[in-house]
Design goal:
single chain; 84 residues; mainly beta; SH3 type barrels; 7 strands; 44% strand
Length: 84
């Protein structure tokens, strides 16, 4: 995927093509990502390990530095006890 998508009426940048035949926005798995920056409207910039993406953190209480599990551009859990 490339370009921009509309999420709630706002344009959200797409991080680029899917990698290794698995897309973090449409696969059936949640992918761990680190929160880099919190944005307005329940969004955050996360480090995917291959770049950054904007995802929704509206369902979780995430802080900068937290690892969140992301499925379909939505953080669904904060992973506790992970240090780096």
């Amino acid at each position: 995927m490339t370009g921009r998508e509309r999420a709630g009426g706002n344009e959200v940048p797409i991080a680029g093509p899917c990698h290794e035949d698995v897309c973090v926005t449409c696969s059936d798995e949640a992918v761990p990502m680190r929160v880099v920056r919190l944005l307005e409207a329940g969004l955050a910039v996360v480090d995917t390990g291959r770049g950054t993406e904007e995802v929704s953190v509206a369902l979780v209480d995430a802080q900068v530095g937290d690892i969140v599990l992301v499925h379909a551009r939505e953080a669904i859990a904060v992973v506790k006890g992970v240090t780096t």
